[in-house]
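Figure 2 data, in text form.
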Amino acid sequence: MEIVIRENMEQHMQELKQWITETAEVRPEEMSSFFSARIAGYEEHMSTWALAYKRFAELLPPECENILDLGCGTGLELDEIYKLHPRTKVTGVDLCQDMLDHLWKKHADKEIKLICTDYFQYDMTANCWDSIISFESLHHFLPHKKKQIYEKTCQALKENALLIIGDYVACCEEEELLLQNVYLQKRAEYQIPEEQFIHLDIPLTLEHEFDLLHSAGFSTVWAAGSINGATLICARK
């Protein structure tokens, strides 16, 4: 399957560079605060990926009984997963308590456990999960941090189980390097400590995502499509 990350790459890059210029003097927001401030309109904003959430849910193997959702937010991916797998047990991890509270109101009737913490620190437990999922969360981290998460997820999954990612992927190396430079410059300019998470996009190209996943120990990696800028990636332990 040929994956088209952006239908009009030239236009996308022009718009991205314009956005970088317009926000040059803007300090990045702390991650949890960013989402708390936008909780009221969050699900409407994310509705652009309605089809991507449906396709994402369809990628989950039917035998999955125990799922870990990293950066679960208000659970838009879970809304679709529960339609197909209503009895699935879910553990959702997110930095923003306001997002988790919203998710709980929607799915309090489900067998779901919600944890407000940094998923880099969360103990996933080895060989525990039928699937680990993440939608539009991992593109906020540099490659060395992303590799840490991929290694943890690979260890935490049961044998032959899937990591399923839906995320912002860079359309080219120019985009990847441009956004990483902006990220590093802003951290230096505002003296933001490394341990503080900030809301600033730093996606990798699909090739570099695959490289990281393979280096983290996944045996097979493939892309299952790209919908409105959300690229769906599967990695089998």
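Caption note: The longest strand covers residues 157-168.
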